[in-house]
Amino acid sequence: MRPEILLLGSGWVPQVDKVLERDYVCHRLAAVAPADRDAFIERVAPGVRGVFTTGVTGIDAALADRLPKLEIVAVHGVGVDAVAFDALDPRGILVTNTPDVLTEDVADLAVSLLLASSRRIPQLDRHVRAGDWEAKKPLQPARSLRGKVAGIVGLGRIGRAVATRLESFGMAIRYFQRSTADCLYPRSASLPDLARESDYLIVCAPGGAATRAMIDADVLDALGPEGTLVNIARGSLVDEAALIAALQEGRLGAAALDVFADEPRVPAALRELDNVVLTPHVGSFTVETRTAMGMLAAANLEAHFAGKPLPTRVLGASA
After folding, report:
1. Strands 313-314, 94-96: pairing kind
2. pLDDT tens for each residue of the chain, 319 residues long
3. CATH architecture under which domain 103-278 falls
4. Is 134 a catalytic residue?
5. Which residues is 203 bridged to in the sheet?
């Protein structure tokens, strides 16, 4: 008999959907009207042994408590800050994620956002579309990356991939995280120091309570009116109200953001600012990476139900 799994979120590539439908009895919460979801979960919960979810959606304690036979949560993503480990660990529920397979595409997007902001690509696109070039309206010049300093917040897999790319643009690299990384890049003494020493601050750290609002008003002021913030990590890492105020008041030069505090709701103030580049949390949104992520998440489910070691197990809160 095929194990029953609950799918939270949607948008899996067809190849992954085909594997899930073949190997499991799939209960898809996203296919149910919001008003009917509570009753739907009540009906399917007794048989659910696995959850297939996204890094943003995760699983909270309330839902986990309603799944008495839950054995494994397979996260389609690298971030697990939305997973309620405190509720899962005491029950021995396993958690997996999909590291490595999304590193390169997320790093590519970070550099794309940095370039879009520094070279003012969205503004130039609007300039041409509006006929302003033909009308010979003046343009604000862009900024070169050569000789500038890129400060990386969190020098993990993605942070290192971003740093490697930016070095090829002739940028100097600095970083900050709580531990010292095994690398040749200089480590700043503190996060405000990194911001002060950087022209571009790229946020690559994991989400969670330990990093919540770590990019605060002090950090933004240290980055300064010529500085640019790039965030491809989690919206929770940035004090969004402080960011908006710094941009509006000219205390920060620009921002390029793929993630937000309350997705998919993006504050109107950010959408109205001309010195902000916005994308809808698409760092891993390529056919190749989403396929690899989905197949790795599915491989973790397959290994678990076959009694084999998990390819990419995440240690819980108690580990």
Report:
1. antiparallel
2. 899 999 998 888 999 999 999 999 999 999 999 999 999 999 999 999 999 999 999 999 999 999 999 999 999 999 999 999 999 999 999 999 999 999 999 999 999 999 999 999 999 999 999 999 999 999 999 999 999 999 999 999 999 999 999 999 999 999 999 888 899 999 999 999 999 999 999 999 999 999 999 999 999 999 999 999 999 999 999 999 999 999 999 999 999 999 999 999 999 999 999 999 999 999 999 999 999 999 999 999 999 999 999 999 998 754 4
3. 3-Layer(aba) Sandwich (3.40)
4. no
5. 153, 231
pTM of the entire structure?
0.91
Among 28, 234, 290, 304, which one carries the catalytic annotation? 234
Q: Is 234 a catalytic residue?
A: yes
Top-level CATH class of 4-101+287-314?
Answer: alpha beta
DSSP 125-173: HHHHHTTTTTTT---------TT-EEEEE--SHHHHHHHHHHHTTT-EE
Residue 65: Cβ within 10 Å count: 13
Active site residue 27: no
Of residues 127, 281, 290, 304, which has the active-site annotation? 281
Q: How many CB atoms lie within 10 A of CB 90?
A: 11
Catalytically annotated residue among 21, 42, 226, 263: 263
Q: How far apart are CA 157 and CA 79, in angstroms?
A: 12
- All CATH 3.40.50.720 domain ranges in the chain, comma separated: 4-101+287-314, 103-278
Among candidates 226, 152, 139, which has minimal Cα distance to 183? 152
Contact in structure between 48 and 6 (CB atoms under 8 Å): yes
Residue 86 token pair: 């405190």
